[in-house]
Write a structure and sequence with these properties.
- The chain is α+β, with helices and mostly antiparallel strands and 256 residues long.
- Among the domains are: 54 residues, no CATH class; 118 residues, no CATH class.
- Helix content is 15%, strand content 19%.
- Strands 1, 2, 3, 4, 5, 6, 7 and 8 form an 8-stranded antiparallel β-sheet that branches.
Length: 256
């Protein structure tokens, strides 16, 4: 067990236990006792923030695997998602309201988030969310896709950009508490977007050409012929007596 298993992507904060269920559905709902021991030992102020003491910071790490995205085969499921919006250049919280497997896209309703205590770090508090009443992210083309009521703020996103999470507790109609850490959700969405927009290129492995090693092979441009000669040289490297037969073209060749 390593401390880096329990940190945010930048290695500066300790995850809440609810954060593990974003990628591991088998994680227990209740926090184990040993996790509270880690909190007491590593956190700068465990009652106000999830930030590590300086000596417990770890190096940055890649996205967890697996990372869940909307299931396009389950049309009626309205997943909670976090997604990076390139127009706002920010991560938003939302719910999926429409899925198109043909277009590989989803319509996401934008939800606003806030905390109700300014004296405590957002990394410590749970986040409250409610539907956005309308902002510059709203696309009118997708306002009426909900049969029961119009969406006040919604937009279209590629289906592979949002990251799912399902740990929410309802407070009232259209008002929920998010159990995962908001800062961790933002890190996941932003990092995931960067990887989708700028995928890592892995060059194909090409066969390495045989490098010329002597005055004969360096003048032979055919790789196949060069390989044949190299193979013959290897086969007869220990031979002491060789006989050569020609087609007669060397008959009149003068030698010393």
């Amino acid at each position: 067990m390593f401390l880096s298993q329990f940190t945010t992507l930048n290695g500066q904060f300790l995850l809440k236990w609810a954060d593990f269920r974003i990628t591991d559905e088998k994680a227990s709902h209740s926090e184990p006792r040993w996790y509270s021991i880690i909190e007491r030992r590593t956190l700068l102020d465990r009652l106000r923030s999830r930030r590590f003491k300086l000596n417990y910071n770890t190096s940055s790490k890649p996205l967890p695997n697996p990372l869940h995205i909307p299931d396009m085969t389950r049309k009626r499921v309205r997943e909670w998602v976090t997604v990076y919006n390139p127009t706002a250049q920010a991560v938003i919280i939302g719910r999926v309201h429409n899925k198109s497997a043909y277009a590989n896209s989803v319509v996401i309703q934008h939800w606003l988030h806030w905390v109700d205590n300014d004296t405590v770090s957002p990394s410590y508090l749970q986040t409250i969310v409610q539907p956005c009443p309308g902002c510059n992210l709203h696309d009118l083309n997708y306002a009426s896709i909900n049969a029961s009521r119009d969406l006040t703020c919604s937009a279209l996103y590629p289906s592979h950009h949002p990251v799912n999470f399902n740990q929410c507790r309802r407070l009232a109609t259209d008002k929920y508490i998010l159990l995962p850490s908001l800062y961790y959700l933002k890190q996941l969405a932003h990092k995931h977007y960067e990887q989708q927009a700028n995928p890592t290129f892995v060059p194909p492995t090409l066969p390495r050409p045989i490098q010329p090693t002597d005055n004969i092979t360096q003048n032979i441009f055919s790789i196949r012929k060069r390989q044949e000669l190299t193979s013959l040289r290897s086969d007869f490297a220990s031979a002491r007596l060789l006989e050569f037969y020609t087609d007669g073209s060397l008959r009149y060749l003068k030698t010393d």
